[in-house]
Write a structure and sequence with these properties.
Keywords: Glycoprotein, Glycosidase, Hydrolase, Manganese, Membrane, Signal-anchor, Transmembrane, Transmembrane helix, Vacuole, Zymogen
Structural class: mainly beta
Domain Glycosyl hydrolase family 32 C-terminal: 535-726
Helix content: under 10%
Number of helices: 4
Organism: Lupinus albus
Radius of gyration: 28 Å
Domain Beta-fructofuranosidase N-terminal: 119-206
Shape: globular
Number of domains: 3
Oligomer: single chain
Pathway: Glycan biosynthesis; sucrose metabolism
Largest sheet: 6 strands, mixed
Strand content: 35-45%
Length: 741
């Protein structure tokens, strides 16, 4: 059974032996550096260290709290009202019913007959008390989940100010009051009095969740990708980052570099919130590389009055390939919300593109009532701007457009295009992140430079109402043109779907998707294709191959591989012709999210793979196809990822994701799946439909993780050919001066 701990702060800190004696740490009171061990997090607040045990629920108590329930707490440490004069008292696990005494003003009065919490007299426990005074750690007051959780930055070069994070026992909204989309992880298990009930995660479970080859900072919160670019042999990735805690807030720009977009090196923070125009956040922005090689960075700042403004920054030393230092333009802001636009509805400038007149053009997301819009500005120097009449696109009912992206794709060639490309052989893509539902939608169509308008090819797939980049957890995405390899690369923020309690406990939240190439599907011409960048293949180690496996209706087939935690899986499936011909036609539509997931059986599905499963199938995540025969006799295929049985944990969002996937005549059903601990990215039919999901198993971890082929159809026999690679870790780490440039 999991017991919470009661802990507290003491001025003269020496050692600790709480929480079932799991760890003992010595600390000199003069040492102000923070320390991290496998079991404890240590931070510094003022002159006194703060210790937080990762397996405890922390409660704040006072004399007014009255009796303490029997067997409720694993350990209790208490200090009287004066932290310098008082003696600490420690109560061991499963102590009998306890109550608080009445404390006298003179805490060291030898005549006091006030009993200790265990009912014994002070004189009888003097030796024990003295030992406790000099030997026990008396920790933190009002820490974590029923009080305040204190997080301190210990990395060199990061801000040292300590921030507090509100309790996670009730839902806390983050971001909305600042004028951005909700950034709080939703809490899912609610008890009878409206409080969240958090699963008793242990260190082993939480440590396993950290990814091996997806980008994430060393600790704390991350969200939107910002200003990705390629410069002097290095890929640069900037991102929204909270250096102070594992929840949204205090947003600055993190910065990392890589030679291949896989093996990243963390650099110092690129830009911090140190000016009146970005004091409430250095928010999302984009990079533009001018023909002369100059880099322009435009970003949104939240001012001291929470007005969203656009700001200009540029490298302090263009000769530095790492672009470590950045200068903010002295006359920032360069753009304020125009008349008629809400002061919290004006953000996320795009990469600029050249017009035929030689001017640079950008678009910025906004809204008018419930109509999402993309405002357009022209500039010659990125310091002064002209607001163009009308909008690039406006779609009623879509709400605020965040993180607008605008770029060309070739109708003929496989390579990507520079953002300024235009012409008869070019289609354009407008992508928006909808503030209302936190999904990324795109539309393919034609851009009229003179009219400054975008017209979708299919109004049913207009901006914000049709196609999505990803049908799982994927938001605030941004592309850039990689001029070194002639490709357009897409990044997306993949947030958590567990509780903030778990995120704060493990000390980090969010990852970035594997960078994906994006291009027009030349076969359908109605959707984009997304695929992991080729550099991912360099992580491949040993492989196992299973050819022509037969999976009969209702069967589960174990795939015996070495490990199932870091995988690159490529699979093809065929349904037997007899079942296809026999299948009954129907006009019933199948939806992944509402039709029962992988447990819902049909004649032609579901079938696919069970990833991150344990041997007994108490936990598993199906990634699967579901085929139906429509009333017109044509097959319709859905591609889904089902988290409903992915974890025994109660504070995890276990949604079923997915959508329709186009399958052309003669094509086999195919999927590529990247498994990286708590993230599963799946790409169906060459990337026509993609799903990123977060998975938090409690049993199917480490060596207990398994992989299965399954077929839950009632009629179809499925033939599968599967190749599976073990993937190496990317060893993402801080940059050191000794690294070769």
């Amino acid at each position: 059974m999991h017991y919470p701990c009661l802990i507290l702060k003491h001025e003269f800190l020496r050692s600790c032996n709480l929480c079932s004696n799991r760890s003992r740490i010595q600390n000199d009171q003069n040492v102000k550096d923070s320390i991290i061990t496998s079991t404890w997090r240590v931070a510094t607040k003022g002159d006194y260290p703060t210790w937080v045990h990762s397996s405890c629920d922390f409660l704040s108590i006072s004399p007014e709290s009255g009796n303490l329930a029997l067997y409720k707490y694993s350990n209790v440490a208490m200090i009287l009202s004066n932290p310098i004069l008082s003696s600490p008292h420690f109560l061991s696990q499963n102590h009998p019913e306890m109550s608080f005494p009445s404390f006298s003003d003179n805490l060291h009065d030898s005549t006091s007959s006030t009993p200790l919490l265990n009912g014994s007299h002070p004189r009888k426990n003097m030796k024990r008390t003295l030992l406790i005074l000099f030997g026990l750690l008396l920790l933190v007051s009002m820490v974590a989940y029923n009080g305040l959780y204190t997080v301190s930055n210990i990395e060199q070069g990061e801000p040292s100010n300590t921030k507090t994070v509100p309790s996670t026992k009730s839902h806390v909204s983050r971001g909305v009051s600042n004028g951005v989309s909700e950034k709080s992880n939703r809490l899912f298990s609610i008890n009878s009095i409206g409080e969240s009930e958090n699963y008793p995660w242990n260190n082993s479970m939480l440590s396993w969740q950290r990814t091996a080859f997806h980008f994430q900072p060393e600790k704390n919160w991350m969200n939107d990708p910002n200003g990705p670019l390629y410069y002097k042999g290095w890929y640069h990735f900037f991102y929204q980052y909270n250096p102070n805690a594992a929840v949204w807030g205090d947003i600055v720009w993190g910065h990392s570099v890589s030679r291949d977009m896989i093996h990243w090196l963390h650099l110092p923070l690129a830009m911090v919130n140190d000016q009146w125009y970005d004091i409430n956040g250095v928010w999302t922005g984009s990079a533009t590389i001018l023909p002369n090689g100059q880099i322009i960075m435009l970003y949104t700042g939240s001012t001291n009055e929470s007005v969203q403004v656009q700001n200009l920054a540029y490298p302090a030393d263009p000769s530095d390939p790492l672009l470590v230092d950045w200068i903010k333009y002295p006359n920032n802001p360069v753009l304020f919300p125009p008349p008629g636009i809400g002061y919290k509805d004006f953000r996320d400038p795009t990469t600029a593109w050249l017009t035929s007149e030689g001017k640079w053009r950008i678009t910025i997301g906004s809204k008018l009532n419930k109509t999402g819009i993309a405002l357009v500005y022209d500039t010659e120097d990125f310091k002064t701007y002209e607001l163009k009449e009308g909008t690039l696109r406006a779609v009623a009912g879509t709400g605020m457009w965040e993180c607008v992206d605008f770029y060309p794709v070739s109708k003929m060639a496989e390579n990507g295009l520079d953002t300024s490309s235009n012409g008869a052989e070019v289609k354009h893509v407008v992508k928006v992140s909808l503030d209302d539902d936190r999904h990324d939608y795109y539309s393919i169509g034609n851009y009229d430079e003179k009219k400054i308008s975008f017209i979708p090819d299919d109004v049913k797939n207009d901006v914000g109402i049709g196609l999505r980049y990803d049908y799982g957890i994927f938001y605030a995405s941004k592309t850039f043109y990689d001029q070194s390899k002639g490709r357009r690369v897409l990044w997306g923020w993949i947030g958590e779907s567990d509780s903030e309690y778990a995120d704060i406990t493990k000390g980090w939240a969010s990852v970035q998707s594997i960078p994906r190439t994006v291009k027009l599907d030349k076969k359908t011409r109605s959707n984009l294709l997304q695929w992991p960048v080729a550099e991912v293949d360099t992580l491949r180690l040993r492989s196992d191959e299973f050819k022509n496996l037969k999976a009969k209706p209702g069967s589960v087939v174990s795939l015996n591989i070495e490990s199932a935690t870091q995988l690159d899986i490529v699979a093809e499936f065929e349904i037997n012709k007899e079942a296809l011909e026999k299948a009954t036609e129907s006009n019933v539509e199948y939806r992944c999210s509402t039709n029962g997931g992988a447990a819902k059986r049909g004649a032609l599905g579901p079938f696919g793979l069970l990833v991150l499963a344990d041997e007994g199938l108490s936990e598993y995540t199906p990634v699967y196809f579901y085929v139906i025969k429509g009333s017109d006799g044509h097959l319709k295929t859905s591609f889904c990822s089902d988290q409903s049985r992915s974890s025994q944990a109660t504070d995890v969002n276990k949604q079923i994701f997915g959508s329709f996937v186009p399958v052309l005549e003669g094509e086999k059903l195919s999927v590529r799946i990247l498994v990286d601990h708590s993230i599963v990215e799946s790409f169906a039919q060459g990337g026509r439909t993609c799903i990123a999901s977060r998975v938090y198993p409690t049993r199917a971890i480490y060596g207990a993780a398994r992989l299965f082929l399954f077929n839950n159809a009632t009629e179809a026999t499925v033939t599968a050919s599967i190749k599976i690679w073990q993937l190496n870790s990317a060893f993402i780490r801080p940059f050191h001066p000794g690294h070769k440039i």
